[in-house]
Design goal:
8 strands, single chain, alpha/beta, globular, 12 helices, 8-stranded parallel β-barrel, about 260 residues
Length: about 260
């Protein structure tokens, strides 16, 4: 057992089977490119579930650039696994979440001009506001997670805010320019996961993961769910969504068997 494996198994409460959350935002991105009615995100969710997805993840952005409220309400009616709603920690989006009633809300940073989410949410800097929002969601029995950089202080702030789950931002790992840098980023993910699980929090991860780089992250046995979207939808253009989801799910299973 190498150093990474030893540290990722540091807790006795390890996750034997990794779960796959499929983010279907970019099905809606393609639909919205022509402001039309297809492709249908709801159909994508059903196909993904049939192919083995354990969770459907969507991000209703403040500018509604892809998934919108119509999609979210329909998905709430038909998703058979779990519905994870990514949202900015704002009062507007709180109202949206309380109307949709997903199984889980993941709080993410959001800027209008960004192409995709850049960096993790700074829970430390906005602790009182985030704690108040989490309290309202919890009263409605909606679990909360926060998309954060793998940083001990951010993990501690999430615990203080009453957040149930952390989702580790894997972007720095995915964008590493060298093997040495990638190993360093992986080590940060493991350290944060160990700290969070030791504090009694569930750990998820996602961002920038694809078929060539997912296995080292999926091998971290303290991580419960990997949320992956862009790479699955991109592969689906050539292989079909059913096959793309099955292939990613198999990679996650293989990672835990090695």
């Amino acid at each position: 057992m190498n150093e990474h494996e030893s540290r990722s198994n540091a807790s006795t409460d390890i996750i034997s089977i990794p779960l796959l959350g499929v983010n279907i935002d970019h099905v809606a991105t393609l639909r919205n490119a022509r402001t039309g009615l297809y492709p249908e995100p709801v159909m994508a969710a059903l196909i993904a579930e049939q192919a083995g997805a354990d969770q459907i993840t969507i991000h209703v952005r403040e500018d509604r650039r892809h998934i919108n409220e119509r999609d979210a309400h329909l998905l709430r009616q038909v998703v058979q696994t779990r519905l994870n709603l990514e949202m900015a920690p704002s009062r507007e989006m709180l109202g949206c979440a309380l109307a949709i009633r997903p199984d889980e809300c993941c709080l993410v940073p959001e800027r209008r001009q960004e192409l995709t989410t850049e960096g993790g949410l700074d829970v430390v800097a906005a602790l009182p506001q985030i704690a108040a929002l989490v309290s309202e969601l919890s009263r409605d029995r909606i679990k909360t997670s926060a998309f954060i950089d793998p940083d001990r202080l951010q993990v501690d702030a999430c615990l203080e805010a009453g957040i149930d789950i952390i989702e580790l931002h894997t972007g720095a790992y995915a964008e590493a320019s060298s093997g040495e840098q990638r190993e360093a980023m992986l080590d940060q993910l493991i350290t944060a996961a160990v700290h969070a699980r030791g504090s009694g929090m569930m750990v998820n991860a996602g961002h920038g993961l694809h078929y060539q780089n997912v296995i080292p992250v999926a091998s971290i046995r303290l991580i419960s769910v990997l949320n992956i979207g862009h790479s699955i939808i991109a592969r689906a253009l050539f292989s079909g969504l059913d096959q793309a989801v099955r292939e990613m799910k198999q990679l996650l299973l293989d990672a835990r068997r090695s």
